[in-house]
Structure formats: C-alpha cells, structure tokens
Amino acid sequence: MGSSVFLLPCVLFLLSVFQIITPSSGRSCLHHQSSALLHFKHSFSINKSVSWYSTYPKVESWKPDTDCCYSDGVTCDIANGHVIGLDLSDSWLYGPIHSNTSLFHLHHLQRLSLAFNNFSYSPIPSGFHLLTNLTHLNLSYSRFSGQIPLEISGLTKLVSLDLSTYFRNRLKLEKPSLGTLVQRLTNLRELHLDYVNISAVVPDFLSDFSSMTTLHLSSCQLYGRFPINIFLLPNLQSLRLSGNPNLTVYLPEYHSNNSLRFLDLSTTSISGVLLDSISKLKLLNSLILRGCNFSGSIPSSIGKLTQLTTLDLSDNNFSGQIPSSIGKLTQLISLDLANNQLSGQIPSSVANLTHLKRFSLWNNQLIGPIPSYVTELSNLIVLWLDGNSLSGTIPRSISKLMNLESLFLSSNNFSGTVGLNLFLKLKNLTELFLSYNSFSLITTVHINSTLPKFDSLGLSSCNIREFPEFLRNQKGLSYLDLSNNKIHGQIPKWMWNVGKETMYHINFSHNFLQGLEEPPAILPYDILRNLDLHSNQLQGPLPIPPNSTTFFSAANNILSGEISLLICKASSLEILDLSNNNLSGLIPQCLGDFSNSISVVKLRRNRFHGTIPHKFSNGSLLRTLDINDNQLEGRVPRSLINCKRLEVLDLGNNQLNDTFPFWLESQPELQVLVLRLNNFHGPIGCPRTDCTFSKLHIVDISYNEFTGDLPSTYFLHWSAMMMSGENKSQFKYMGDTYYQDSVTMVIKGVEIVYEKILTIFSTIDFSNNRFQGEIPESIGNLSSLRALNFSSNSFTGCIPSSLGNLTKIESLDLSQNKLSGKIPQQLTSLTFLAVLNLSRNHLMGPIPRGQQFDTFLSTSYEGNSRLCGLPLVKKCAYTDAVQQPTFLFHQDQDLEATSEEFDWKILLMGYGCGMYIHESEIYSLTKALALAQAEQEKEYLKDLLLALLEMEHKEAPADMSTTQALDNAREIHEIKGSITAIFESLKSLTMAQASNHPILQLGPSSVEQPTRSSPNPQPTDDPDFGQYE
C-alpha cells in the first residue's frame, strides 16, 4: 500500500509528459501543408533502381486522409503544426524538380534533405529563397546539374549546406562564385561541395568563419594557394581538399590544441617533406595524404598520432624504411603505404596493430620474407603486398587469416611450390592474386575440399601446366587470368558455365592452348567485357565473343577460315585484334561501322582478299585500322574521312591500287601512315594545301609507284616531327592501358616490329618509288626524326645541308639516287647517326671526317666514283677540302661580270700560268663556264683546279723522301689528266652554244673558237662520266 502511494505521482508525471510530446496533444498538420506535400509527392515517379542502399520510398506512406505529421520523413512543430523538417533522402524519387514546386510553400522548413535521389540532371530550382528559415540544406548526390542558383546565398540562417555531387562538371559554381555564395552565410558550420565545378581560388575570408567545423571541397578544380589560416580555425574538425591537383597547399606549424579529426589532402600540390608538426594533431583519427608528391622519409613522429584509425600515405615518393614507431598506432584499422619507394623489411612493430583490417604496401622495394607477425593480424580483411621484392616461400601460417577477403602477392620473388590447398581455410577469400612470381602453383585440390567462392583470380606466370579443374565450380567468378603459363590442350566445355552471369574478364593468352572444346556459336557470357586468347596455338574457326565484349584478341594463333558474320552482333566491341593468323575470305563489311564504339581493328598478317570495308560512318570512333600484309585490292575507302579520331592507318603489304590519299590531311589526330608495298601511284602533293599532316610522325610509303617532285614546302607543317625538346612526360605509348598500337618498319636496313609505339618516335620512308627533283630543304625542319629513307628514287641536286639540323637522327639512307655535289660538312654534327648510306649516287669530293663519320664503312659510299678519302681506298688529291678564297666573292666587283665569271677567270688564269691553257682563251672560257648547265662537272673542275694550285705552289718539306715526291707528282699528273678531260668536254659544249650566246665569240683579242673535235683527252676512270657530256 505504501509503495503504491509513491508510485502514483510517478505515473501521473509520466502521463503528463506523454501528453506534451505526442503529436496528438499539439496541433495536427495544417491543410495547406498537407496538400503541398501530396502535390510534391505526385510530381515524381518512384524508381527502385535509384537507391544505392536497402531503403524504401518514404513518400508511399503519405495519404490524403492521414495527418502529415505522422508521415515518414516529416517533422512538425507540435506547438503549431508547421512542417519544420523534411528528410526524403534515398527515397527513390525520380524526375526533375521545377521552380514552381509546392515544396517552396513550406515556409517554416528548417531542415531539408533530398539527398541520394535522381532528379534527372535538372537544375537546382531557384525558389529556395522562399525558405528563409532553413538551417540545414542537403541536396547531395541527387543528380542535379547546371549553375547553383544565387538565391541560396540569401539563406543566411544556414548552418549546414551540402551540394556535393557524383560527377565532376555536372554542377557549377561560377555565377555566383564560391566567394559570392558563402560570403553572407556567416553562420555556416558545415560546407560540403565535393565534385562541384568551382574553378576558382579559395577566398581568404573563409579563414574568418570561426564556427566552421567541416569544409569539404574535394575535386572542385580549385587552383591558387589555399589560405593557410583555414587549417588553424579553432573548431575545424574535418577538412577535405582531395582531387585538386592545381591547388597549392602549405601545411602550417600546428598547435597542440588543434581540433582537427579528419584531414584529406590527396592529389593536391604539396610536395617536399612531411613536417614533424603533423604529430601535434593529437585528435586526428584519419590522415589521408595520397598522391601529394611527398619525398624523404616518413617521420618517426607519426607514431604520436595515437588516435589514428586511418593512415594513407600512398602514391608519394617516400623512401627509406617504414618507421618502427608506426607500431604505436594501435587503433589503426587501415594502413596504406603503397606506391612509394620504401625499402627494407616490414618492421616487427606491425605486430602491435591488432585492429588492422586493411594493410597495403604494394609497389615498393620491400625485401625479405612475409614475417610471421603479419600472419598473426587476425582481423585482416585486405592484405596487398604485390609489386615488391619479397622472397622466400609463402608461409603456411597465412591460412590463419580467417577473415581475409583480398590477398595480393603478385610480382614478387616468392619461390618453391605452392599448393592451392594452402588457401582452402580462408573461407571468406574472394580475391587471390599470385601472378608473376617464381613458384609453381599446384592447382589440384583434395576431393572433398570446399574452396572459397572466388570473385577474382590472378594466376598468371605460375607455371601451371593443365587447365585448373577447381574452376569448374566457381560459378560466381568475375575475373580470371591464367596467362603466361604452360597450359596445353583445349579449353574444356565446362568453362562456358563458369561465371556465366558474372564473368567480365578472361585472359588465357601466352599458353599452348590448341582449341575450344565444343564451342558454342557465340560464347555464352552475359557481361563479359575482356576476352584475351592471343599467343596460343588455337586452330579452327574464330570463336565469336558475346555481345557485351569490348576487348577481344585472338592474335598470334593458327585460326583459319572466314570470319563469321555473327561478329557483326558484337555491338559493344572497342578493340578487335585478329592479327597473325590464317584467316581468309572477305573482311565483313560490318567491321567498318557495326559498333558505335569500335576504336581498334587489327587484322594484319592474314590471308584476307577483296576490298577494305567501304563504309565508315560519320562520327566513327575508329582510332586504329591495321590490315597490313593481306591480299586486299581496290582503293582506300574515302569514307575514312569520317573517322576524325584516326591515329594509325596501316595498309601496307597489300595489292591496293590508288593515288596518294592526300585527303587524310584533314584527319586531326593521324600519327601513323603506312602504305608500303602496294600499287599506289602518282604525285603525293596536296592540290590546294601544303599537306598539313600536323601530328604525323611515322610515314612509310615505300615500294610503290609514286612520282614527281616533292614541293619545297612539303614538310613545313609536319609539326609533330619538329619537337626537338623531350622530357619524360612525352615518353608515352600509343594506345590505352590494356592495348598498345604496334607497327613494322625497316630501320637501319633491318625490318623491326615495334610492339609499342612511342609518341616521340619519328621516321619517314619514301624509298623505292620514282620521285625526282631535289630533296626539299624543308626536310631539315623535322628535328625529331630518328630515321629517314629516300633511297631508290631519282632525286637529283645536292644533299641538303639542312639535314645537319636532324640532331636526333640515327639512320639516313639516300642511296641509289642521282644526287651530286659534295657531302655537306654539316652532317658530321649528327652525333646519333649510326647508319649512313649514300651509295650509288654521283657524289664527288672528299668524304667529311670527324664524329660519326669516322665510324662508317666504305659500303656507305660505294658507287660514287668521284668521292675520295677514308674509308675509301681512293685518296684525295689533297688532304682536306680546300675552301674557295674569300677574295673570289667580293661584292664590289665589276657589275659587267657575274660573281661566277670572276671566280672562273681567276682560277683559269692560275691554271694558265702552268701552261695548260692559252691566255687568249681565258675570256671566252670564263663566259662558257658561267653559262654552262653542267653544274656537277663545273663543281668538280673547280675543286680540281684549287687542289692543283695549292699542290704546285706549296713548298716541299726539306726532309721529303723520294717516294713521297713521286707520289705527289703522280697525284698532280692524275689531277691534270682529269682537268684536261673535263675541260675539253666543256670546250665542246661552248661551241654548241656559241650561236645562241654571241658573247662567247668576243674576247680581248680575235682568236679561233674551239672546234667540236678536241685533242685526245686523258682517260677518266669514272664510268658515269659519259652521261654528263
């Protein structure tokens, strides 16, 4: 009885409290608000696929006859019935929000969340200024787009604003800018704008927001210098600036009273060393500095951050050993030091990290075995040690990690024999990567063993000798790599049921597989993206990939027969490589445009005949078309002009019959053009332009029937070959991460297959055509050329001295042309030149000496009978090339005589003094030589005359032996004989031109003109001499 007396007041008190906090005790939802909510509900459709989580559509509980204050997601003020809170996050809402939405009738709203819905990339409506009481606004990850409206800046009561989005550039903050948006929002404590395109400098006044606790500006394209005082805001607890590579960040000297708990500066511009003052952030539980270009060692003071649960220093340049102090971070759940230059062994202090679930050290320089204390970390879910130099055997104790789901040990030096049974106890294991080690993997398992249900298996280069039988029951497999093993036989038919609904990647390349057992017409995988069968011994018809496939390679096999037209159903294909097989028949016409996404078609080295597919659709994404070494005929399809992304066009080694495809100059990305060994013909000029192949850097049009001159401006706009400066950032291969382009070229006289093409590799091969005329001087502008081959044409004139500008060139072949004159001295500056071939021309004079020219053999010059000097046996009449005296080129000479006449007059007078020509003939011969067209003979004669003058006027040394004197006399005699032969030939030319040039009949005295019959000339040893007469 007494206790009841005491209980009664308590019961009455509780009843009174219940009356106060129950909505029924206050006012119910106002009618106009209920109507506004229902109208808002009906403006959307409900779509379950919108949800990322296990949620439900809250608005489905909203009914016309129900008090809205009881509805899911609605909060009311019990005093007056006003709706003050609306949380519709992740409620499956689908469709746009319009500016006249009834949502803006809820004027008393204080908290609004529409996060994680799908508003169809509609703009954020402009009526938010009507909700003046808002303190919390969350529109994040709901697929809005466009400019953030200025009206939001008027919500001056906002404490929390979250406009984060999924995709960069969908939402923009330009007008207003970041500064304009937040300048009036002085009450802000939380600002989330992740992935909003801000593209601006962070305003300094943000460092005055002393109440700020959270600032998240990840991937906003920020630039400039981040205000350092923001780091020191007294209440700041969470700062995320990741994904802004142009944002310069300087870490401050922290104070010990800092409130920061979360810091993510990944992929910003920091660099330098990590300062010790970071250790003063005693409350920090997450430190993420991934990809910040830090260098030096990881400071041992990092061990003072004892509250850390996440530490990510990956993708930097940290070096040295992992500090042992890291073992003091006993609360760590995730430790990521991957992709640095850390060395030494894994420290023993790691044994203290008993809460660790994620441990990532991949791609460092760590050595030694896997320590036993690592296998004692029983909470590990992820262990990534791949890409190091770890050695020894994989410890059996690894099977103790019962919670392990992901194990990466690839690309180390593990050895011995490893049985798959080692991993049988790891029942949660879904990812296992053991590729590229030195051990042999035994895939046979115990009969009654229950294997984990794998999702991903990387077993490349594991010395596997038979197709793994354990795969038969892996129905949920999505990634399988068995490449680079020693597997023989056929791919078993049960493989078509492995991961039938889940498999997206299969790589069986580089084995000894001979075929597919009972292959279906189309391989039956639902979502397969990558299928790699290349470099095996597959025979029979080509297997057809499923429609979902984007990458398919069956190259380097023995496949035969025609390509089934079922290939036309593979509408998702991006890369198709069937090169190096025995496939025959016609190329299916659908390969030109059967896929909107096809970027690579590679069919080289097969036996296809017929024509190239003629239809390439407008807007095609084709990047590479390689059909080299087949039996194709006809013309180059003009529809290729629709392929504006075309980079590689290799049509070599076929039977194509067409003119030069000059219209390809309009392809803005074309970098490689190979037309080698076809029946192309005609000139290669461009009718209305200078052939502006601006990105072309590999050209091979050899072994065709091209004719005509090369215009002097031909190479002026080949700008990709003009970039002489190189840095590491330019050393990139053509292709993508999984596929690289290749090309076959003849370099230095050897056919070389380049399996990858460096974007800076430049070469030109115009050999074995019928080009004529002079080689344009503009070729010297292509300063990044590595190889140039103009051999086996009919080029005339001199070798351009501008070739001396090709400072990167390694191979130069101008052989088998009709080039004349001297070898330019400028070529001796080509210090990378390894192969030079100037043979079979009409070159004359001494071979230059010095630099690489001292290394070339006589075969580089053979067939040029007028060349002399080393390495040829034939000696020059004088030791070095004699330069013409400067007095021969006075600019103030008699205007009645040309410079050339003046030169010849002086030379002939000097020669006449030696009693080889009568003085009376000098005037007429001077005119004859100045007007004669035999430029090669005149140049050669001038050299001989200068050499003779020097030798006859040079005083013999006192100690000259009789043998040396006889040698000199013999050389003088040979020179005089050559001069006489050329001179008599030119005298005959003079008479032939006398009637057309009366000036030749005048002289200082009346003399008889030379007759056509000349005295017996001295014989010449030049077999080509006759063609110049």
UniProtKB/TrEMBL annotation:
Composition bias of kind Polar residues appears in: 1001-1015
* Subcellular location field: Cell membrane
Q: What is its main location?
A: membrane
Name the membrane topology term. Single-pass type I membrane protein
One matching Pfam family is: LRRNT_2
The answer, when asked if Transport is one of the entry's keywords, is no
The chain positions of domain Disease resistance R13L4/SHOC-2-like LRR read 250-362
Quick one: signal sequence residues? 1-26
**Presence of keyword Transmembrane helix:** yes
User: GO CC: one term?
Assistant: plasma membrane
Q: Keywords, A to Z? A: Cell membrane, Glycoprotein, Leucine-rich repeat, Membrane, Receptor, Repeat, Signal, Transmembrane, Transmembrane helix
- Name the SMART domains for this protein: LRR_SD22, LRR_TYP
InterPro entries named among the record's database cross-references = Leu-rich_rpt, Leu-rich_rpt_typical-subtyp, LRR_dom_sf, LRR_N_plant-typ, LRR_R13L4/SHOC2-like, RLP23-like
Ranges for the Leucine-rich repeat-containing N-terminal plant-type domain?
32-77
The family note in this entry says: Belongs to the RLP family.
Annotated protein name in UniProt: Receptor-like protein 12
